[in-house]
Design goal:
By secondary structure, the protein is of the alpha/beta class. The chain has a domain of 212 residues: NAD(P)-binding Rossmann-like Domain (Rossmann fold). The protein contains 10 helices and 15 strands. Strand 1, helix 1 and strand 2 form a beta-alpha-beta unit. It starts with a strand and ends with a helix.
């Protein structure tokens, strides 16, 4: 099986490439930079073929996919800077990447009869209530530009293709890039006390675990919408922060505050990021491990990375 992975310099794309290599599949990485720009950790991703591609350029997408002829495209590339997406001068670019770029990939996949995996987000919903969102729910009410453009990407994929997996995730962390855990650990070096919101609830997603699930998926034809985060129940950002510092042995006083008390960010954030994942089990897929276990393994990997 030949798999093209977009956004390979990001957290998830990096781990998907390594998971493909573990299973002996042919992986081709792609991103915007002329050469691979992710962490050079000696893992398989740095040794596998890399092809630069601007997903907003339809001709470039068609040319590269026609050349590579993948059986599957795992589309991880996206604009993910949620607050910056609200700037009027950025919105056209955000839409070109998250909606237009995804449509370009989907059209090329249709031409090649290739499977497509599209990584989406809980931000396609309005984040209200306390009931976990089900993967086949169509009650879309994005709160911000990022969520709206990711939804437009979803609709392009489902409208053009039959052989697709749309996988919504939340609160992502991985080795290759910035994330909440790295930010908290960095802040712990200079702060004795931190204020963290306690009324936004969801579950973290470790890209290493998610990559395994995505490769499990593309080995099948169980297409459709799925939700995938780590197991272990629903928590707040405050709960997550407390556990990060507990496992990392950081003596930081964490104060719970409401979103209103914390202060409004440029982009509205969902209060309810609970994602219902039972469809994974119903389809025969193995759920991701408990988030506390994922955090422990991640902190170990971070420590190894620092030593190297």
């Amino acid at each position: 099986m030949k798999v093209l992975v977009t956004g390979v310099a990001g957290q998830l794309g990096h781990d998907v490439m390594n998971e493909l290599a573990k299973r002996g599949y042919e992986g081709i990485g792609s991103d915007l930079a002329p050469e691979y720009a992710g962490i050079m950790d000696g893992s398989a991703v740095t040794k596998m073929p890399y092809k630069p591609m601007d997903i907003t350029n339809a001709a470039q997408v068609n040319a590269l996919l026609s050349e590579v002829k993948p059986d599957v495209v795992v589309h991880c590339a996206a604009w993910t800077a949620v607050d910056l997406a609200e700037d009027e001068d950025k919105q056209a670019k955000v839409r070109a990447i998250n909606a237009g770029g995804t449509e370009n990939i989907a059209k090329a996949c249709k031409e090649l009869d290739a499977k497509m995996v599209y990584i989406s987000t809980d931000y396609v919903f309005d984040g209200q209530g306390e009931t976990p969102w089900e993967p086949d729910c169509r009650d879309y009410k994005p709160l911000n530009v990022y969520g709206q453009t990711k939804l437009e990407g979803e609709l392009a994929v489902s409208g053009l293709l039959e052989k697709y997996f749309i996988v919504r995730i939340a609160w992502v962390f991985g080795l290759n890039g910035k994330n909440f855990i790295k930010t908290m650990l960095k802040l712990s070096e200079t702060h004795d006390t931190l204020r963290v919101v306690c009324d936004q609830v969801g579950t973290p997603t470790y890209t290493l675990d998610l990559a395994r699930l995505l490769v499990d998926m593309i080995e099948t034809d169980r297409y459709g919408y799925y939700h995938a985060t780590n197991e272990g129940g629903y928590i707040s950002w405050y709960d997550f922060t407390c556990e990060i510092f507990r496992q990392a042995n950081k003596n930081v006083n964490v104060i719970p505050v409401t979103t209103a008390e914390y202060g409004l960010s440029k982009a509205a954030r969902p209060f309810n990021s609970r994602l219902d994942k039972k469809k994974l089990v119903e389809a025969g897929f193995t759920p991701l491990p408990d988030w506390k276990d994922a955090l422990a393994r991640y902190l170990q990997e971070l420590a190894k990375q620092e030593q190297n």
